[in-house]
Amino acid sequence: MKDSWLRKRAILKYLAAGDFVSGEWLATELGVSRAAVSKNIAGLEQYGVEIYSVKGRGYKLASPLSLIDEERLIAGIDNRSFYFDDLDSTNAFMLKHAGELASGDICVAEYQSAGRGRRGRRWQSPYGSHLYCSMYWCFPQGMAQAMGLSLVVACSLATVLENNGVTEVGLKWPNDIYYQHKKLAGVLIEMSGQADSECNLVIGIGMNLAMPSQQAEHINQPWSDLSESGIDLDKTELVIALQKQLQLDIRLFEQQGLSAFMVRWQASDIFYGQPIQLILGDKVIKGLCRGIDSAGAVILENDEGIQTFVGGEISLRGMS
Fold first, then answer.
1. Is 118 annotated as a binding residue?
2. Domains and CATH numbers, the chain
3. Greater confidence, 211 or 119?
4. Cβ atoms within 10 A of the Cβ of 299, count?
5. Is 159 annotated as a binding residue?
6. 118 carries an active-site annotation
7. Strand ranges (DSSP E) for 180-235?
8. Is 121 annotated as a binding residue?
9. How many Cα atoms within 13 Å fall on the side-chain side of residue 254?
10. pTM
């Protein structure tokens, strides 16, 4: 698999210049047949890379790709970093190898064939267009110690983006990151272990960097990507900054719990003080959003008073 990507990466490097490149020229430079070039171009398109093909002119990327620099990634992070061009899921990889990992180890992929969001939803994962990464952490006191962690991770993402000049970042309970009121990134936390003993936990993050138009057609909710911000973030530096911020915040969370993040969450909560509806199975509950409590539950105020809700089947929608 690694060898097949060496040629594809070489083609992408030539196409990254921004001009049309002929298939014959690529074949000569790579020392392969014209048919081999066409095969690799087709392979890249199957991975979600949009490439213009014009007879008599050659090939050109529809939009620039932001790829990880593996050497800089490894040098920039003290923990172990696993990097792949193609992987089924960064979360699945980390869970599979949990027994060999240390807290803070990360996995990054340019493409996921089975990327997932909350409730088993598919996360669109075209090659090189977005950020797909997972970080491992061990909680010695068990699953209960991780209660509310998804909100901490969302705060970490918001902090990293704001430190890099991205404004109008918002948080949507329990773990979505928004840019200009449209979804930019999501968090999926998975764990294995016992409720009252050591717990292996994997924090998966998917962030839209530059959404290809063909992939956007498959998304059924308002979305945004970092290209809309006009800020050109280096993906390698973004991962390094995110890993470091996550470590700082999770250690703070271990020491002080979610109470240490209440102010940060409220400052970015896009629904705070707004009328909302919570959808819990077939039940819809309406009221004003009053933020979160120290356990990570969303607080709702209505005619029945103050209520709190927590659980994977609750969704939150702004009321028109």
1. yes
2. 2-61 (1.10.10.10), 70-267 (3.30.930.10), 271-318 (2.30.30.100)
3. 211
4. 17
5. no
6. yes
7. 182-193, 199-208
8. no
9. 13
10. 0.87
